[in-house]
Design goal:
single chain; Rossmann fold; 5-stranded parallel beta sheet; 4-stranded parallel beta sheet; 19% strand; alkaline phosphatase activity; metal ion binding; hydrolase
């Protein structure tokens, strides 16, 4: 395997819009907006791809624009949208079926935009009445799990009962074990679906990176040439693996997030980018 090396001007197509590639916390990384403008001026089409399901595409656009990065909703592909597309266009969920959501507003907004019926639980402890009322429900066609900052025993108990029905589809917006914020790692969406996997013995179909279900959804919507695309990200096990397994023309890692130069250069590493940079703005020289 060829060792990755530093590069200053690869051909870009895909970008990951999180707090490790473009911003950290609520602060835009140095010259990030300038770098994106430079790429657009070179005629590169950008797509912001993220596993974060807590925000819809509209909310992400507002966040990016608030940071000084102009973009349209059509340039954003989040795992909440990927999940909604999969349910409506691949599963073609029947109109009389609903989706039970463990997650946040980003998922609900994208499901609503696709005309998919859904419901979720608010916060609260399980009650004696819940033990009596929770059970398999033929009206629930999908259980969809994403990152949920208010995950509870009650939500997991309800989802478990629905998943006892083998006809209920088990989906996850992504199965990231952790997510980075405020300079630390915290439990990711995978930590939400993992207890259900343990309970049921079922593995969810993941609609986020590195699952190729997400790549297929992107290609289905945008009809792009994979060999003319480059995946840019900070995480080897999701971003870079996503690009490699998707057969993209190139992969670029940046060292402003989860993965380190030591990991990239480690002897025997199995998932490696074609090139890496300390920061995205190093493209500018």
């Amino acid at each position: 395997m060829n060792r990755p090396h530093n590069l200053t001007s690869p051909p870009f197509r895909l970008l990951k819009p999180n707090n490790c590639v473009l911003w950290q916390g609520g602060t835009l990384l140095p010259r990030a907006a300038e770098t994106l403008t430079h790429l657009r001026n070179l005629g590169k089409q950008l797509l912001f791809v993220t596993n974060n399901s807590t925000k819809s595409r509209t909310a992400y656009r507002e966040k990016l624009q608030g940071l000084g990065i102009p973009c349209g909703v059509e340039e954003i592909f989040c795992s909440a949208y990927s999940s909604a597309i999969y349910i409506s266009r691949v599963l073609q969920l029947q109109r009389d079926k609903k989706v039970y959501v463990i997650g946040e507003s980003g998922i609900e907004e994208e499901l609503a935009a696709e005309g998919i019926a859904y419901f979720s639980d608010g916060s609260g402890d399980i009650t004696p009445e819940d033990y009596d009322s929770f059970g398999p429900d033929e009206g629930v066609g999908v259980v969809l799990c994403g990152l949920d900052h208010a995950i509870s025993y009650r939500k997991l108990a309800r989802a478990y009962q629905y998943l006892r029905n083998p006809g209920t589809v088990f989906l996850a917006t992504n199965v990231d074990s952790t997510f980075p914020t405020h300079g630390k790692l915290f439990p990711g969406a995978g930590a939400v679906s993992a207890p259900l996997t343990y309970m049921t013995g079922r593995t969810p179909v993941s609609l986020g990176k590195p699952s190729q279900a997400m790549m297929d959804a992107i290609e289905g919507v945008l009809k792009f040439d994979r060999k003319r695309a480059c995946m840019v990200g900070d995480r080897l096990d999701t971003d870079i693996r996503f690009g490699i397994e998707g057969g993209l023309g190139g992969t670029l890692a940046v060292l402003t997030g989860v993965s380190t130069e030591e990991e990239i250069l480690k002897e025997g590493a199995t998932v490696l980018p074609d090139v890496y940079l300390d920061r995205l703005c190093d493209i500018l020289g």
